Every structure is written in C-alpha cells, then in structure tokens.
Amino acid sequence: MSNTINTQQNAASADLKVPSLNSPQMRRILASSFIGSAIEFYDFILYATAASLVFNKVFFVGMTPSVALFASFATLAVGYLARPLGGIVFGHFGDKIGRKGVLITSMAMMGGASTLIGLLPPTAQVGMIAPIALIALRIIQGLAVGGEWGGAMLMALEHAPKERRGFAASFANMGGPAGAVLATLAVSAVTLMPEDQFLSWGWRIPFLISIALVGIGLIIRLKVSESPLFLALEDKAEERKTPFMEVITKYPRSVIRGTLVGMSSYTVQGLMTVWAISYVVEEAGMDRTAVLNIKAIGAALTVVGIWFAARYSDKLGRRPVMMVGIAAGAIMALPIMWMLQMGELWLFAIALFIANGIIQATIFGPFGAFTAELFPTRIRYTGASLVYQLSSTVGAGFTPMIVAGLVLLGGGTLWIAGGVWAATFIVAGLAMRGIKEGREADLEAEEIS
Length: 449
Hints:
Layout: H1 2-17, H2 24-53, H3 55-58, H4 65-96, H5 99-119, H6 123-126, H7 129-157, H8 165-190, H9 195-202, H10 204-222, H11 228-233, H12 243-250, H13 252-282, H14 288-316, H15 318-341, H16 345-364, H17 367-372, H18 380-397, H19 399-409, H20 415-432
Helix pairs in contact: 2-4, 2-5, 2-7, 2-8, 2-10, 2-13, 4-5, 4-7, 4-18, 5-7, 5-10, 7-8, 7-18, 8-14, 13-14, 13-15, 13-16, 13-18, 13-19, 13-20, 14-15, 14-16, 15-16, 15-20
C-alpha cells in the first residue's frame, strides 16, 4: 500500500513539473511572442502596402507608371534580401548569448527605421537622397525582421510542453498576419483622405504610430524569461563554433528542403497581399479602401487558419497538415488568377480569402515548429531563422516583381503567372517528401536526425 501511495505521489509531482500553456509565465511568453511579432510585421507589411499604393508616386517620380511601380517593388525586395542576413547575424547572437536580448534589439531597430520612413521627405524636395534613404531604411527593416521571427517563435516553443509546441510556436506566426491587419487598416483609414493630402502626408501617419507600438512591445518583452533549453546549454556557448557554418555544413539538406517548402506559403503572401492589391486597384479600377479592407479581413482569417492548422499539427504531425495546404495551392493557383483577372471586387475577395485564409494558413500554421524541429538547440535560432528568411526572401520578396514581369510578358494575361505559381507548390510538395516528421523529435538531443 505504501509503495502504491508513493508511486501516486511521484506521478503527481511529475505532473506538476510539466509546463502548461495556461500558467501565468507561459501566457506572458505566448503574449510576448504574438504581440512582438505583430508589431514587427506591422512595420514590415506597412511598407509592402505603401509600396503598392504610395512610393511609386512619392519617391519614384518622373517615370512611367509601370516602371515606377516596378522600382517601388524593387525596394520591397531589398528588404527581403536583407532578411536572411538578419537571420544569420541575429541567429548567431541568439545561439551564443540568448534569445531575449536579440529580440529586444531587433524590435528597437524596426521601430526606429519605420519612424524615419514616416519622416522621409519626397524626391520632389530632396532629389535622389529620398529613394536612397528609403532603400537604406528598408534594409534596416529587413535585418530587424530577419532576427525577430526565429527568436519569438523559439521563446514560445522552447518553453512549451512537447505535445503543445506546434501550437505554442504558431503564436509568432499568428503575429505576422495580425500585424498585417493593423497595417492594412491603418493605411485604409488614411486613404479616406483627399488624394493630395494622402500622398502628401496622410500615408506617413501609420509609420509614425510605430514608435508607440514598439514602446508597448519592449515593455512586454523585457518581462519574459530566457529560454530554458538555451540556459541548459549556456555554459557551452563559447565552446561552439560559428552556428551559421555548422548549419550549412551539417544540415544543408534541411535548409534547402525547408526553404523550398516555406516558399510556397510566402509566394501566396507576395502575390496576393502585395502584387494583387496593386493590380486590382490600378488595372481593374477597384476602390482602394474597399480592397484594403478585404485584405485586412483576409489577414484576420489567416490568423484563425494558423490557429487551427497548428493545433492539428500537434495531433496529426506537421507534414500531413502542411501537405493539405500545398496541394490546395497547386490546385487553386489558376482558378485564383482567373478570379483576379475578372476584375470583380467580390471575386477578388473570394480569391484572397482562399489564398490567405486557407492555403497560406494551413502551410504556415505548423511552419514554426516544422523549422525548429530540423535543428538542435545549439544552432536552432540560426537554422530556423535561415530557413524562414530564405523562404520569405525568395517566396515573397521577389514574387511581386516576377509576377509583374510575367504579366507584361503575357500581354496582360495572368495565366503564365498562375502556371508558375502552381509550379512552386509542386516543388514544395516534392521537397516535403524528403523531410522526416518532427512532431516527436527530442529537442534536447545533441543532434537531430
């Protein structure tokens, strides 16, 4: 009897030691992951929205509309090019000195760059200094967001119990579209102003709001404790070689395959939330405010979709859930492009809701845990950030420019772009076949097989 009682007491003690997502500390960590990511991506997506509607008319004057828009999208791509570098640099220090300090630095950089963009004079006043400064600030944004996601995701995942880590990691993913909702609604509100006032100073307001949002985010982030998995290896941090070199020499297949899988989700984002916004406003003549409101609803649906996809990934695995989204993307690519070309607002809304709320969300929901489970703790920040940022750079950063070029090549038709889009999902599906399911992976292991 005594042995039975002792066994029950030991089991109860063990249960008490298992971390819960409902504990005050865990709720604070999840809130920090979500809010911090939302604020960073508010700034980053705000730029993307402005690149679609404003910058071609403010910073790239004296060009034909098509060339000015292309130049505006090129500055957008520059920010995405900086993201992998940001992932490498911030990942290095995140793996060496800890996740928390790196996240505070990245947020401060992002807020400062966005505020300065809001204060930047137009080309008509200062000449070429304006677009050059815009590009420089966009690079800073790219570096900052390159370090943000990996740390925010890992802080949640590495604190969470094994059976809930997919859902915990998704809070950083949900923060992205939540930030997009805020950014889109902010721009939508100022588009109600007269056109000359909007282009003169109205568009600057959402950028200047950033400084207040970053202040709130920093207060929350400063109260979060360091990752326990990192602390367990902290005394060995100085003994490790450069995390980036270890990632590319020991885990190159994980980087390449993970990037190809992630590209599918980010191609949806670049095409539907950047290029398509410009296309339906400029080419189809849709009301700008209505289009932005639909985009905001689509981003909100993405948050909901990520929530469900991440939860099911903890039950079914990352691979099967993500494959549903990849297959749906391949099947729906051409129908979505047809809906865009029809030039009807309601068809645009349906296309956006399917693309973002279902396809992107289903792939993106488990993506945080998916990338983290590819690498061991000592290089996880660098590895996961590199996969994520390469995916976003290739998938979202170049998509608006590529699609704009394909549409010009096709004489205005969207079928070529639709075919290329479908091909990215097929490539992602093939890449996924070579990746082992990570739901049961031991994150404390020295190596990940």
